[in-house]
Amino acid sequence: MIVALCTMIAASQSADSLLVRASQVGYLPNEQKVVTVVGTATGPAVVRQVSDNRVVMTVPCRTPKLDVDSGVSLFSLDITKLRKSGQYRVEVPGVGVSDSFEIGPNVFADPLWMTMRSYLGQRCGMAVSLAPQFPQYHYDACHVGDGVFDKSSGKEGSKPTPGGWHDAGDYGRYVVNSGISTSTLMWAFEQNSKALSKLNLSLPDHNAKVPEFLTEVRWNLSWMMSMQDVDGGVWHKETTAHFSGFVMPDKDTQPSLIIGQQNEPHKVTAASADLAATCAVGYRVFKKYDAAYAKQCLTAAERAWKWAIANPKSLFTRNPAGIGTGGYGDENPADELLWASAELFRATGKAEYNEYFLKHVNDWKPYLSEKQIPGWPEMTAFAMLTYAMSEQKITDTETVKKIVADATRMCEVLTKRSEENGYLVPLSSLEYGWGSNGHVSNQALILEITSRLAGRPEFRQTAQNVLHYLFGRNTFATSFVTHVGVRYAMNPHHRPSGADGVKEPWPGLLVGGPNSDGKPLPARQWEDKQGNYKANEVAINWNAPLVFLLACETTERGVKSIRR
Predict the structure, then answer these.
(1) Integer Cα distance of 308 and 267 in angstroms
(2) Looking at the structure, do residues 123 and 241 belong to the same domain, yes or no?
(3) Do 406 and 342 sit in the same domain of this protein?
(4) Among 151, 224, 235, 420, whose CB has the most other CB atoms within 10 angstroms?
């Protein structure tokens, strides 16, 4: 059954059912399976098979404990021993009944398809339609003219800047956020290429020689390269002067401006290093499928690298005069430079990149910690992990051992937090900030990679628990991904969803999630309101680690099941 087509049944269920919270997508047969129960049971729970209402398991209930982040008492109901594929529901006497959920090897296949195809819905510069599956979601070509140089770019006139993804709920395109988003998706492909190369996304520009997953990635990567100047430096962003209202993309007719930092040399170190790193990954993943494009990526990467190390303090810290769109300012691009050196070394094996990495890696001690969760301003973890994953023969093995050891300690902390959290997530009470769902997804990304590097399968289980949290086993008994699950976020801060006249939002979008903003009970600080951009906006960099996680948990068989 396609998850996106599940009927919204919340209104027909007892309100008590919301107190027995399962993953609305389901569970893999051999993973840990936990259902969260809010309240006190009056007897043992039973698991029923939906097809015939037969009881297949009886489970004793525990005494509830206070979950400090949500302020309610709850307990975990472990149904791990149930491994047979099928549809089930859990009944807890005195509390309620869960939504039905699936156990099976392909439970994450449709969410993977949905979340990756959401990038088609973010495309800039072309007419977009999510047909044939979702024909109601479409818009005409937007922002089709050349990018116009803002005075902060140091240039006059215009240049072609085709393509790219709208960054979030707005229609801007930002190099630094594109860097982590595009690279995360390509890392997902590198680690799961056998499965992802078969993913059919129904793209209008599909080339049989290139997997559709990479075709979508290329739409944004090519735009990033168009933001590179002839000297190798990269401008910061391309946006209108101010955010548009809630209109469809093709109705946003303001000039699209190429924006840099106001002072010489106008291009930006962080953006240039991000392009260098991302294009280095692009070279690695595309060379098997399109050698010419891969070479273009490597050329752009090396030119951006040379400019960045020659201009290590060209900073974008605030918007230039007359610009009111997203800032994405960064006062210290040292982590982006380290990341670029690691990705270029992994791509080419050249000594100069290895030497730079080893010269600067000890500026970070420890190399990794739970305070270094990836995000557009914090790329240290990507630098360390890509170096550790490098296949190059001259990799410093002692440094790799130290990186893996620090990553392991980091993941032990995250796993302990997860075990102590009522909803089994590694978020600390202070980490329910803007985009907490993206943050926890990146925690899970680190857990998945370290599980492989260190041979620690329990880290993977912690990552899987993050998926279940995002898909409804949370304080709100609601999936944070549009069109995924039984009951999902309906009002994201996303202009096409608010302007298209369609009741339901565009599919496959991960909303930002609880944002305490200094308030108590941080896990409760979310509302499904379009106007609340601090808790309900969507963003390409939040969807990307979710795609990464789903790719890691989806079998080749599962991917085949969603070929349209």
Answers:
(1) 9
(2) yes
(3) yes
(4) 235
Sheet holding 257-259, edge to edge: 158-159, 147-149, 257-259, 237-239, 173-174
Helix or strand (DSSP H, E) at 496: helix 495-499
What is each CA distance from 370 to 285, 350, 360, 415, 433, in whole angstroms?
A: 29, 31, 20, 11, 15
Residue where one domain finishes, among candidates 107, 128, 161: 107
Query: Is the domain of 309 the same as that of 220?
Result: yes
Handedness of CA 524, 527, 531, 536 (dihedral sign): positive
pLDDT at 1 (0 to 100): 36
Give a yes or no: residue 487 inside a domain: no
Could you tell me which of 414, 481, 423, 403 has the C-alpha nearest to residue 445?
Answer: 414
Could you report the per-residue pLDDT of 331-386, keeping only the tens digit for each?
999 999 999 999 999 999 999 999 999 999 999 999 999 999 999 999 999 999 99
Mean per-residue pLDDT, 448-458: 97
Mean pLDDT of the chain: 95
Residues 117 and 88 in one domain: no
How far apart CA 195 and CA 256 sit, in angstroms, is 37
The secondary element (H helix, E strand) that includes residue 411 is helix 397-420
The residue behind tokens 């991960």 is 510
Please tell me whether residue 128 adopts helix, strand or coil conformation.
Answer: strand
In a domain, 505, yes or no: no
Beta pairing, strands 20-21 & 34-38? antiparallel
What is the bridge-based pairing of β-strands 134-139 and 128-130? Answer: antiparallel
Tokens representing residue 157 in the block: 């006139």
Which residue has tokens 């010489």?
264
Residue with tokens 């926890």: 440
Of 82, 107, 132, the domain-final residue = 107
Helix (H) or strand (E) holding 436: helix 436-454
Alpha-carbon torsion angle 312, 317, 321, 326, nearest 10: 120
- Provide the residue range defining the domain that includes 359: 109-478+531-560
pLDDT of residue 157: 98
